[in-house]
Amino acid sequence: MSATELDFKSGDQLSPRSILIWRIVQAAVWLVGAVILVCLLFFPPVGVLLFWNILIPVAPALFVVATGVWRNVCPLATTILLPRHLGLSKRKRLSLKQLGKLNLIAVITLFVIVPLRHAVFNNNGTATGLLIISMVFVGLIMGFFYEWKSAWCSGLCPVHPVEKLYGANVFMSMPNAHCHQCMNCVVPCPDSTSNINAVHPTKTNYHLLSGLLITGGLPGFIWGWFHVPDETTITTVSTFLSVYKMPMIGFSATLLLYVILSSVLRPQFERPLISIFAASGVSCYYWYRIPSLFGFGDFGEDGLLLNLQNKLPEWGFTAITITTTLFFFYWLLIRKQNNRSWVIRPQYGNK
């Protein structure tokens, strides 16, 4: 049986033992997330270190290689899906237009929140904790009304657009550790559609715009973000808005480039073009993030995890960033598309 058949035709249920293993893993990751949240609220320096300088730097690489792992164990998703697992959800279905609007809001939210790291969140654990709590609250409310992952995980979550951009050629499909039946709550389901990306399939103009913004704009946005220092004191509106200047310049530049290229290239080159922009985004992230984690960043201790400046040569980190860039371009662009989805679709159910 091919990977595509596994993704689209498998009706096998997870065994009780497999479900138990996944529940244990989900509970363990949830506890880690809870500890980080407690640290953010009550031990801010530790929480900031754990969240922004350990957890977040790992996420983009995980999205590239195995998006399904994160989709199965994300502590926010585990919390938000509790109403559905406990039979408390009204299980409403979103229309395509509603889902498209949520996707667009998610992309805009991502581009609004990330620059605020420089102004607020990178140096304020309490604010970061409150941000997470607010997302849990919104997602949990949505979980009481809408079916499975449709409203938050595949709709309003600001991380989801990045998952779709980076997770277009995963290593393998994981079992679905949340949805024991497929209710077609999202069409097409991002979890169960092979080689899904941020642009296709397009259902509404909202989907089209959200895919365009995240695919074309993210690489330049990331580049610009790393050219802004953290602000420890925000005293004026202009200082507050300054954290958006470089990210938006980079965003506009690569978005324009993407629009031009996608309009002149033949349709068969569209997927490679998307892969180039995806690889550029994740490569740019690690090109700057890895050195800054270890004391070789452009802005001193911004984003510092462990200072190795006096212990290791800078050229070593240059070699690492070149290696990661080559890896991501190989993985997303050169490596053959394997027609695998993030997770294996469970058997269809009747509402």
Secondary-structure element sequence? Answer: HHHHHHHHHHHHH
Total helices: the number is: 13
Number of strands: 0
Largest sheet: none
Determine the structural class based on helices, strands and strand pairing.
Answer: mainly alpha
Low-confidence stretches: 1-11
User: Whole-number average pLDDT?
Assistant: 91
How would you describe the oligomerization state of the chains in this entry? Answer: single chain
Structure description:
With 351 residues, the protein is mainly α. The chain has one domain (3-334). It has 13 helices and no strands. It has helices at residues 3-9, 16-42, 44-73, 75-80, 82-85, 96-119, 125-145, 152-156, 160-166, 205-225, 237-264, 270-293, 314-334. Helix 2 runs antiparallel to helix 7. The radius of gyration is 20 Å and the shape is globular. The relative contact order is 0.15.
